[in-house]
Amino acid sequence: MFLFRIILILIAIQSNALAENLYFTAQGEQGGQPVIYRSMQDVPEGARESDYPTLVNIYWGYDNSENNGMPDSETNDKQIAFEDAISSLDSTGISHLMLVITGNGRKEWVWYVKDPAIWMSKFNQLLSSHQIYPIEIEIQKDPQWSTYHDFITGVSGL
Fold this sequence. Notes:
- The protein is α+β, with helices and mostly antiparallel strands.
- The protein has four helices and six strands.
- It is globular and about 40 Å long.
């Protein structure tokens, strides 16, 4: 009985934490291949878009001739390790990971960043003990969060 109560409390704590910033997944298609989207449902609670005016896109291309355009198991494991390594960047005051797109031979992470120089420094620190990942990074201004809002507007059923 005591163990059951602890589990319920932990579930309630996790549910409250997740309720603050809800992610959803959606499916689409590009070039005849399935694409999976993972996105924040809303701008994170307490965040003002104007405080994070820089859009950072991270691209990881991979062979899409197998697995219907999805990464193979080895690539997927590396992508998970990469995302786990940089997950601490997703915090108020630094940046917010708003969208992840997987499929058609590419995985893309869409971040909104407060200060790109500080973000890149932290990014490099977090990955300093890792292998070199096959990524490309693109940085541009997007103070209205157009990339994120255009995506959300295009998703039906929200």
